[in-house]
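2024-03-11 09:14:02 INFO receiving multi-entity request
2024-03-11 09:14:02 INFO entity count = four
2024-03-11 09:14:03 INFO echoing inputs for audit
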Amino acid sequence: MANHSDLDILGRTELFHGMPSAMLVEIQAAGFRKKLASGEILFQQGDSASSLFVVIAGRLRATQTTLDGQQIIIRYLAPGETAGHTTLTRGVVHPSTVTAVDDSHLIGWSSDTIRKIMEQHSAVAMNALAVLAARYHEIQIRLLELSTEKVEQRIGHTVLRLANQAGRRTARGVEIAFPLSRQDLAEMAGTTLHTVSRILSRWEDLGIVDCGRRQVVLCKPHALMAISDEQA
Amino acid sequence: MANHSDLDILGRTELFHGMPSAMLVEIQAAGFRKKLASGEILFQQGDSASSLFVVIAGRLRATQTTLDGQQIIIRYLAPGETAGHTTLTRGVVHPSTVTAVDDSHLIGWSSDTIRKIMEQHSAVAMNALAVLAARYHEIQIRLLELSTEKVEQRIGHTVLRLANQAGRRTARGVEIAFPLSRQDLAEMAGTTLHTVSRILSRWEDLGIVDCGRRQVVLCKPHALMAISDEQA
DNA sequence: CGGACTTTTGAAGTAATTCAAGGGGAGTGG
DNA sequence: CCACTCCCCTTGAATTACTTCAAAAGTCCG
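2024-03-11 09:21:47 INFO inference complete, emitting structure
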């Protein structure tokens, strides 16, 4: 039965949505399952890119590290999303490390397999193009933010994005549905944990957010949007 | 004869390399030519993405602008490269503006046409995936640089990248083969023209570069690499 | 209850921006 | 051909937003 529900989910992923179920069966049969406990690594920056994965359940984080050990968070991956698209290009290595931040369940395909699937089913290839284009667009926006905005606005946009992607409505407001430290936010917004802490404290005084240890709840999204879109 | 040489070039673009020439003829016939004088705009941020282009000759620049008019340069496009890949996703708008910085010659395909080509020829779709993956990787590196490096290193990496992409060997060193103002460099490195000017002056004193009005010649690449990779 | 993380907050320091003013090249038009 | 104008570039000085340094206070877990 696990198989059956996997199929349902597979049909709703960004990569395979819209595919007839016969094909999904075939696709699933060609892949392999992978389970990761929170904290385990799916693949590492510099590993040769040999498999492409789709997240079935859980949550993962893609990071990039400099030679001297500084890290940035590229993005968080939710169920339905794709990890390791570098695999689609021959002979390259993963540019980022992907780590589970929650117990996670994925399905993977070897480079050859996924390429064969795409060659036979152009709809999958077209989906992949759309996925990559969306990611590209996303990161382009972050580049723009990082280049033109002040820290407070950047942190604001980061929180708003996370609330959108991984928000859970609660009595207090929209809660970001996974543990998120000040350091994590800093690595996404391109700043330090100190600055994040200070700014979050200020917002807390204004009643805009409500945060705890590795937790952020967004109480007044509109107020935060106002701050984030404010022109210098 | 122009047709013939276009074909040659088309077969060496990132999108169509490796395709048999019969197919190239077909692909070219399905597209349309577009000429732009220096300064003319190919498409603008926010325009609906209706065509995809390949640069045959010339040079273009992709930029993104904020609501309050601040601009960043996403990248420069050389012959063989692809513009407007957003067109591959249905119902979206161009995230950036593309402008010719030199008289340029392109071939374009409507959204429907290029999708049809990709559906029929999976090799083109796979090329497109490789192109997008490469762009993504590229921009990811810039995000890392922007987040972790100091201005001098960022400018250094920017100049090194440009020298690589568009360098022309001359007696003085490697000359960046298109007009590049301090403002342009600033918009690529995420800083101000003042800072770029100061740092370029310093490098000039050290004999690392030699620059003029809208011109940069890299004389000592290794020295610049040393500066750029220096750890804080 | 000890110990390891995570967070907070002040104070000092600094890299880079902003402000301000002037200089120089390239092209235009008289 | 010279003068004028428009850009582009340079360089000091003042300002500031943010980081770095430092220390202490919470908070969770075994």
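2024-03-11 09:21:48 INFO post-check: Chain B touches chain A through 44 residues (CB under 8 Å).
2024-03-11 09:21:48 INFO post-check: Chain B has a mean pLDDT of 95.
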